[in-house]
């Protein structure tokens, strides 16, 4: 399976569109990577670029970007509100798919060494790519920012991991770069109804993990208390895995708490939002919304949607796009400017890059017309999976209606749990719609293989058998998944809103049809298998599901009729 790494370089230019576009074009033109986002900030004078690709391609693209920034940006004239010490200030790698953090860190080291040797830029490796503990923290590496770089790189303690340790003319122009490997980081700014940087900083210190220094007497002006080693004694903040500062954004005319959430497993975005809101309220300040910098994983918004739906005692078994909408509105992600999930969520951007047509993306009319055409696919297997999906959708609908029925507020969680199960079954069955057609296409491709030599004939024969086995297993998945739809419909027939019992009954009929239809596909595909023992086992297994589906259908339809009565 393909390995994927995300790269999120931050470079020190957020005001000049020409420079920003030239840097972004380096990634647009790079092979093996996909540019996902370019997010400039005028006040911070900084742009965040996000791209994803295979590891070696990401290393090459990141190197080209750093070289272009070295060419176009002169740090001697740079000013902005965000901490920085280089033209390409930071360049973190994030493991996305089929790659470990350790492997990701190795690629970060590969890039760091290349940048140091070939571009003569001082490089510090941080987070999971750090060679020593104190360099894990980016703030330690960047302490004093660009202005302190001249003195720091020549010291033994802060000599760069790669590249020059002398402040040459070239280094004066480029500054230093921090290259690392880290978990996914969410950069978020909380919008405040104040212009006070001091108030924003106070809120940031309340919540950030590091907290604030403990002082003697006056908590603001008092002398900092030190430990036996002479280090400030800190009062920890309330949110683990977060870093935060307060600043004023002239672009919007408001102060913000700017936060990096470095561990979303410990502190999810919605938890951070509510905590910042609570701490702000104690200081007489209101959070009006939040601004996501760069991209965000879909899970972050889904978790937030679930959290706010649960607080409202609403069913969590709704479509993911609705959950995303709830999350956006609950946290005011569209407070300052429109928040387009299609452009801000990593998974949605990657889906847009996948141009493979899908049956489930067709309109109902288009799907019916495609099925009716002279093409042999989609056929009965895909239709069976789709009927199962409709059955799951009907059961889920009844669960959602029941969870919101007046007078049933104490039952919302029961119905929500069933609706969530129904949504999962629906999504699995929709995926099987296309998987069944793909399985048929694999068989056709196998039949199209060359057969001129004995070796080619043997390879073709084996490929046909492998493809046929796959085409037998897919409708079996449909049978097993569709059969679970009976459970949802049964629960809704017995305990759901009686006014919707007929919908649950139709869901039962859809589930039975899905099982029967997929059984026919198992049977016809298995009959072409050379391994008759395996073929007979699959047919018998599928037939048993058919027998049980018929029993379920008769029983549940009687119950449905009784409720309708």
Summary of the model, kept short:
The protein has 19 helices and 13 strands.
Secondary structure: helix percent: 40-55%
Share of β-strand residues: 5-15%
- Shape verdict: globular
Largest sheet: 7 strands, mixed
Helix and strand composition category: alpha+beta
Helical segment count: 19
Ranges where pLDDT stays below 50 over 5 or more residues in a row are none
Distance between the termini: 55 Å
Mean pLDDT: 94
* CA-atom Rg in angstroms: 29 Å
For the secondary structure, the number of strands is: 13
Describe what this molecule looks like in 3D.
Strand 3 and strand 4 form a beta hairpin. 53% of the residues lie in helices and 14% in strands. The protein is globular and about 80 Å long. The relative contact order is 0.07. Strands 1, 2, 3, 4, 5, 6 and 7 form a 7-stranded mixed β-sheet that branches. A 4-stranded antiparallel β-sheet has the order 11-12-8-13. The mean pLDDT is 94. It is built from 19 helices and 13 strands. By secondary structure, it is α+β, with helices and mostly antiparallel strands. Helix 7 crosses helix 8, helix 14 packs antiparallel against helix 15 and helix 17 packs parallel to helix 19.
């Amino acid at each position: 399976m393909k390995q994927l790494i995300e790269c999120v370089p931050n470079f020190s230019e957020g005001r000049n569109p020409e420079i920003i576009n030239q840097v972004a074009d380096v990634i647009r033109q790079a092979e093996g990577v996909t540019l996902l986002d370019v997010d400039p900030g005028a006040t911070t004078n900084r742009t965040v670029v996000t791209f994803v690709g295979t590891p070696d391609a990401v290393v090459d693209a990141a190197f080209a970007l750093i070289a272009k920034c070295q060419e176009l940006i002169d740090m001697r004239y740079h000013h902005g509100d965000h901490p920085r010490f280089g033209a390409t200030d930071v360049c973190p790698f994030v493991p996305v798919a089929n790659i470990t953090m350790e492997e990701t860190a190795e690629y970060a080291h590969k890039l760091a060494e290349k940048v140091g040797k070939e571009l003569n830029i001082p490089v510090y490796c941080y987070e999971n790519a750090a060679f020593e503990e104190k360099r894990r923290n980016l703030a330690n590496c960047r302490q004093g920012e660009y202005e302190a770089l001249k003195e720091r790189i020549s010291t033994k303690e802060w000599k760069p991991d790669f590249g020059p340790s002398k402040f040459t003319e070239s280094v004066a122009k480029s500054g230093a770069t921090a290259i690392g490997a880290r978990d996914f980081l969410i950069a978020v700014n909380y919008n405040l109804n104040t212009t006070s940087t001091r108030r924003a900083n106070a809120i940031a210190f309340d919540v950030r993990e590091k907290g604030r220094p403990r002082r003697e007497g006056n908590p603001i002006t008092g002398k900092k208390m030190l430990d036996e080693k002479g280090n400030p004694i800190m009062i920890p903040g309330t949110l683990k895995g977060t870093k935060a500062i307060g600043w004023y954004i002239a672009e919007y005319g408001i102060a913000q708490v700017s936060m990096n959430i470095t561990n979303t497993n410990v502190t999810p975005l919605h938890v951070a939002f509510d905590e910042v809101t609570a701490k702000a309220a104690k200081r007489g300040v209101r959070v009006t919304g939040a601004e996501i910098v760069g991209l965000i994983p879909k899970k972050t918004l889904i978790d937030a949607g679930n959290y706010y739906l649960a607080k409202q005692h609403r069913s969590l078994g709704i479509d993911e796009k609705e959950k995303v909408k709830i999350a956006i509105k609950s946290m005011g992600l569209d407070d300052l400017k429109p928040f387009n999930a299609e452009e801000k969520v990593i998974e949605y951007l990657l889906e847009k890059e996948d141009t493979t047509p899908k049956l489930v993306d067709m309109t109902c009319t288009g799907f019916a017309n495609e099925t009716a055409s002279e093409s042999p696919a989609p056929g009965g297997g895909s239709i069976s999976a789709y009927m199962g999906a409709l059955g799951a959708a009907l059961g889920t609908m009844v669960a959602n209606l029941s969870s919101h029925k007046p007078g049933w507020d104490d039952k919302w969680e029961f119905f929500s749990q069933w609706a969530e199960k129904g949504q999962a079954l629906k999504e699995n069955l929709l995926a099987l719609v296309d998987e069944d057609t793909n399985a048929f296409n694999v068989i056709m491709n196998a039949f199209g293989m060359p057969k001129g030599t004995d070796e080619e004939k043997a390879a073709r024969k084996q490929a046909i058998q492998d493809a046929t086995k796959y085409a037998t297993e897919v409708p079996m998945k449909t049978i097993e998944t569709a059969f679970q739809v009976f459970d949802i419909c049964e629960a809704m027939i017995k305990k759901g809103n009686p006014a919707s019992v007929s919908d649950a009954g139709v869901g039962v009929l859809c589930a039975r049809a899905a099982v029967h239809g997929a059984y026919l596909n198992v049977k016809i595909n298995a009959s072409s298998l050379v391994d008759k023992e395996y073929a007979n086992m699959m047919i018998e297994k599928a037939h048993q599901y058919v027998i049980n589906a018929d029993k379920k259908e008769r029983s549940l339809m009687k119950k449905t009729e009784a409720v309708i009565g």
